[in-house]
Amino acid sequence: MTDKRGYKWIRAEIERLDPETDSERIVRLTHCQLLPKSLLAVHLFYTVGFVRFAGPPESADSVDRGGTGMLYEHGIRRADETMFHLFTWIDDGVSSPASAKSLDYVRNWHSGVARNWPMPLHTFQHSAAVFTLAIDRLLRHVVGAPGSTENERRAQLAHWRTVSERLGVADIPQTWEGMEDLLESYERGADFAYSQSGQRLANALIDQFATRWFPRPLRWFGRWLVLAFSEEHVIDTLGISRPPAPFSYAVRRLARVAVFAKRHVLPGPRAVFRLSDVIADHKNSALAPRR
Questions:
Q1: CB-count exposure of residue 161 (10 Å: 0-12, 13-18, 19+)
Q2: To the nearest 5 percent, what fractions of the chain are helix, strand and coil?
Q3: Which of 63, 86, 129, 224 is the Cys-Cys partner for 183 at CB 3.0 to 4.6 Å?
Q4: pLDDT-based confidence at 57, cuts 50/70/90?
Q5: Which domain holds residue 137?
Q6: In this structure, is residue 211 part of a structural domain?
């Protein structure tokens, strides 16, 4: 942990750093600035993002496997393991030995899956764009808040391009605008479409979040929460009903206020916390206990 004392030191440091040479630091600070130290919040962020991967039918099929995929029996464990890998790359930087080991594991796992459930290159290119743009799109397209700064965008681009290259993904856009064009054209095209496996997969992800964090009488609230933070064209494509408009409006409005407060009113955290520790150290973590 790095102790700091300035009131809004994170925003100042992000803008002071070089997005090319200091991209790892900027990406870590960006996530610590916006995400609370809460597994519920981190799991919500993960679920909203991964519902998007149910859109490409080939991608959904590889996870769904005719309704018999690991996600249906061990969904929370898979979620925590996936989040732990993703946030290890952010906490330690892509260049770290821990991230190198994690990236090799994920690449080998995908290679094993591909032997029986091959996925075309475009599904991985779509994933690269989703990860790169996730925070900016959530802020601008869903919450209605100002998006990422230029430094944050350039750092996110550098980070996720490196991650994708380490995972063996070729022909990734080299610019932020290229990532935006890829995502927009892909999710309005034929490769992003309704499928039974995609709908089943998305509903499972949403229900697992709701079941984990809310008692039975309030699980509808957990579902609606995920859907309120999802872009409409994504859940429409998957054939999932939108939550009531007043609910989505209220949730997004509250989120906009929270983002404003985090950015402009509340002091920055006194220390940079590890998001992977939020997952591993939670009392209800599905990860194996650390030695």
A1: buried
A2: 70, 0, 30
A3: 129
A4: very high
A5: 9-281
A6: yes
